[in-house]
Hints:
Blueprint: H1 14-22, H2 31-36, H3 40-50, E1 60-64, H4 65-72, H5 82-100, E2 103-112, E3 115-125, H6 128-139, H7 145-150, H8 163-169
Antiparallel strand pairs: 1-3, 2-3
Helix pairs in contact: 3-5
Amino acid sequence: MNKSSGDPSYSFDKRLIDVLKDSTIWGKIALPVLMAFTSKYAVSLYENLAQCVNLSMKQHQEYTLGEFRELLGVPPGRYKAFGELNKHVIKPAVDEVNALAPFSVGVGPKKQGKKVVKVTVLWMPKDSQALEEATAEMQRSKVGRRARITGPAEHVTAPLPSLNRLIRSLPKLPASPKSSQ
């Protein structure tokens, strides 16, 4: 606080200024998108890619499998085989980020012999139609999101009324005069 004028003032540590001045990675994390995720691995993938998605000269990053596991926050010793990691962590996280984020992402394995040793992560901004679809999905309930994203969701039509209900809903016909015999 400036004592003479009463105006607030602030300053940054010189070490922070040097770090910020030389930083090449900046990201914008949209809180509504972040809050829409249901998977902690999708949150980690989104947060890390949000830093890179606006870099003009870079649209992919290669990670060792260990680095990628750490980036996603997979506990050590969990999902040891790549197949398990891919099935339970990578694919669901990629599907969710692709459904909700303003960018698309792809993850591809790099093998050495038969063993996966690295993964390549690719990203690109979405077009306007894909952005509209992502925004619409964010507005929907989280309940059923996994099924909507992966495709096995069944869309049920409204049930048909029973025959008795249909008959009861028909307009009453005027009574016909009885003929005398």
